[in-house]
Amino acid sequence: MQAPLTRRLGRSGIEVSAVGMGCWAIGGPYFSGETPIGWGDVDDAESIRAIQRALDLGATFFDTADVYGTGHSERILAQALAGRRDQVVIATKFGNTFDEATRQNTGPNVAPDYIRQACEASLKRLNTDYIDLYQFHINAYDPERGAEVRDTLETLVQAGKIRAYGWSTDFPDRVRVFAQGEHCATIQHQNNVLDDNAEVLALCEEFNLASINRGPLAMGLLTGKYAAGSSLPVNDVRGVRSPDWMKYFKDGKPNPEWLKQLETIREILTSGGRTLAQGALAWLWARSPMTIPIPGFKTVAQVEENCGAMRFGPLTADQMQAIDAALGR
Question: 60, 84, 152, 184: least buried by Cβ within 10 Å?
């Protein structure tokens, strides 16, 4: 059996599997007011089996956040990784307050004291004494004030609470602020074959920061599971009450414009025996040596498919050119 593909978390030098496991969905339902920001109902036992299967298949990088399921995702991850902490790299996020009893996101707080409290709370839920990668979760936070957040994270590194940090942001000016920090290692941003963020990716390459790709499968669109008539549950972030930023799904159904683009490249992505999802992950690996996609999962089968992409590796230069031509870019 060949060794799994690996990548590095930027200038931290921490090595991880080339595909990470995105743990948003396994947090279960949670809300901002009436708006769902989770991925619907979950089976915790299946989530735990899926995490353990991912480990067996060579995945070593698990990305969660304190707010996912208002603490539930972190707790499930801790249960699944019990006794295997030394085999994995754990990334979590901070910046949102929440009420576990009502499963509500109650808004941002990035005061230095709160960041330290949030870190301690995540350490407890994750049942660990250090976090490998601690990420700022407020995408559009004021870049001029971002330096204070960055400096607070440097103190957490010095205290041994975290090994490295990053910002989950799609904005180049925010990237530049965090890149000045000695222990900044990553930027997490939206990126997939249909929706490329070339500017942020270029900055990751310039500053030697890993590009952690959220939405690598376009919120499930690139799995091929959803057709024009598909509809999502009301408690799903992609359902009829979805937040304003949800572009891949509209009114609880796949956005037809994105589905149309997908059909133009389906054949290229699925060539050579790959599934559609595996082709989408392979595109990201070919896009840059800095990329680490973190597809979400709820089931063992999804984990097996995502980890299986590592057997094939990146797309070829010819395939990359053919996709650009098909998409007219």
Answer: 84
Q: What are the structure tokens assigned to 144, written together?
A: 């001029």
Helix axis angle for 72-80 and 112-126, nearest 10°, is: 40
Does 21 reside within a domain?
A: yes
Q: What are the residues facing 222 on neighbouring strands?
A: none
The strand pairing partners of 97, in sequence order, are: 107
Express each pLDDT in 304-318 by its tens digit: 999 999 999 999 999
The structural domain count of the chain equals 1
Query: What is the pTM (predicted TM-score) of this model?
Result: 0.97
- If DSSP codes are grouped into helix, strand and coil, which group holds residue 61? strand
Calpha distance 323→329 (Å, rounded)? 9
Q: Coil, helix or strand for 187? A: strand
Q: Residue 100 maps to which CATH number?
A: 3.20.20.100
| Cα torsion 5, 160, 126, 246: sign | negative
Residue 106 — φ and ψ, nearest 5°? -105, 15
CB 68 within 8 A of CB 98: no
Beta-carbon contacts of 18 under 8 Å, excluding residues fewer than 6 positions away, are 4, 5, 6, 7, 285, 292, 310
